[in-house]
Amino acid sequence: RRGWAIIHLGLTILGLFFAVLGAQFIGLITHGKFSAASDLVVIWILILMVQASGRSAYGSVYAFNEGRFVAKIAIASMCLGIGAFFILVPVLGMVGALLAVYLQHLAYRLGIQFRARRLRGIPFDDGYAIFGSGLVLAGEVISQGTRLPLELKIGLFVGLALATLLGFRKPARALVDYVGQVMHGALGATAASREPSMLGAEDPGDP
To answer: What is the pLDDT of residue 124?
Structure first.
C-alpha cells in the first residue's frame, strides 16, 4: 500500500507542476506552439491517479470470482464514456475527449470499489488518491481562473507542493528513507571496491 502511496505522491507533484506551470514549460520546449496542451497533460495525470488506486478492491473482486460483474461495470463505464464524449467534445474539443476518458475510468473504479465493499467490507484506502486529485484540480482552477505572473505561479506551485508533502507525510518519509538506503549502499559498495584486498595485498617489506 505504501508503494502505491509513493506513486500517488509523484503523480500529485507532477500534476501540480503542469496545472500551475505547464503552459510555460510546454511553451518553452515547443517554442510557444503547444502551450494549451498543459490542460491535456493534467487530465492524463488524473486518469493515471484513478488507474493507480483501489488495488485491494480489485484483488477482492477477483478473489470472489466476480468476473461477470467486472464485465458489466466495464460495459456500463464504456457507455458512460461514449455518452460523455459526444456531449463534451463539441463544447471542449480535445479537453472534452480526455474528460470523457477520465469519467469512464472513474465510473469503473467506483463500481469496483462499491462491489468490493459489499463483498468483504474492505477499508477505504484511496485517501491519497483523492487528496492528490483535489490538490491538482485546485491548482488547475486557480491557475486558469487567475492571471498570475510567473513569480506568483512559482510560489503557488511551491505552496501546493509543500501541502502535498504534509498530506503524504508517511509515504514521503518512506521514500526519503529508501533513497537514503540506496545511496548508503551505493557509497558503501564504491568504498569497498576501492580498498585493496587483504588477501591480495603484499607487504612492502617482503623481499
So the answer is: 64
